[in-house]
Amino acid sequence: MRQRLAKVAVAVIATGSLAACGGGGSKGAPEASGGGKKPSAHASESAPSLKLKVPATYDTSHGWQLSGHQVGTYALLPKAGAVAVMTGTKSAYRVTVRDAVTGEVRWTGKPFRDLAEGEAPGMFVSTVGDKEYLVTWSRGEKGGDAVAKAKLVYAVDVYSADGSGGAVAPARHIEAPASDYGNGRIADGGERLLIPETDKHIGALDVTTGKFTTYDTGSVKPDHCSSCSYGNEIVALTQQDPVVSNEGAGSFGVPGSWDSSRIAPAQADPATGAVWPSTGGNLIARWGEKNGGDHNVWAVLDSKTGQVRASVMCAKPFIGPGSDPDSALSPKGRYLVSEHLAFDLESKKGYCFEESDSRKPLTFDAVTDAGIAYGTSLTKGSLTGTKAPVQLSLATGTPTALPDNSSVPIADFAGVGIFSHAEGNVPYLIVYRHKG
Prior knowledge:
This protein has one helix at about 260-265; strands at about 15, 60-65, 75, 80-90, 95-100, 105-110, 120-130, 130-140, 150-160, 165-170, 170-175, 185-190, 195, 200-205, 210-215, 235, 240-245, 250-255, 260, 275, 280-290, 295-300, 310-315, 330, 335-340, 340-345, 350, 360-365, 370-380, 385-395, 400, 410-415, 415-425, 425-435.
């Protein structure tokens, strides 16, 4: 089963060390909260001490920041207008949720135990409809004694994003059988959580109800796919049904509802489909061009109906992507970017920024409600290449270079831009307000 790190419109990012508490950071910032000490109300003074070179939209004299061990693992909640940070020690972790504009603490979670050994808990945001849920999880052994073996389980805590107060308990705590198959990571499947149980059984957790459903990948397959007798994968989840893919057969869909051969755009070869989970009830899909053409057809799909919301033709890269594409959605849901792709879902326009004879390859990680996407270009010439900051207006489809050494936001919502930065080995999370 393919797994992906949760980096969606709510942009889940992990950075920095979780091995210790306290110390480090800017004036007025709280100590890391794993030790049980209630954090202070303010992350920093009203003007962040670190002033990056940023796009003209942002005012570096107004905002807040966290640094060092304060950063921990963090997740962004655009609908709630908040930033969640998870910090802790080997014995206990805790979530702190801050107002994105002021940095003030809205609520702190009750400390919880990490089941994993040598690995911090995972955290991401799951969005169902118009509501966000903060999810923390870990995997490890529970029970066992001199006679009985311990069981490998997932421990999942689900918090409502709009909590308040201190030592907030999760809305629900779920323990489920865990897998040692593959990387064994829980992932956001779109409208439910994907939980790998074994190589052939996938769990689906509804964060709104706590309902847990197990699917046998050997018994589900895309419709109209006679060659899909094995190799089926559940890659995403609607509230009711799984999205099933068979990459070898070039087929995907929701069994009994829709399939890739019926909804493929006119330019696409319907037998070459591939699909990945996105956010906001969307999927990212790709087909090869008809008649063996030298382009791919990329599209954003409605996961429930398979309806193509926007599509674009894109030259096939010389070397294909090494991992599943991530995507980000603007807070109000009109614009979506997915690495080298950008879409206006209202006007149904799509843009592709693969490398061409005249242009470097561009990758976008964030997009605003104003239709401005931020990302980087890549100048090849070394094993990793050299990146430079760019921005894109989706009104025109025209990208422009930003000044050298500029930082671009990883997200923009609630009138602020969120920036991830490191100086030496010290991570920073910096929030700058919009000008005006």
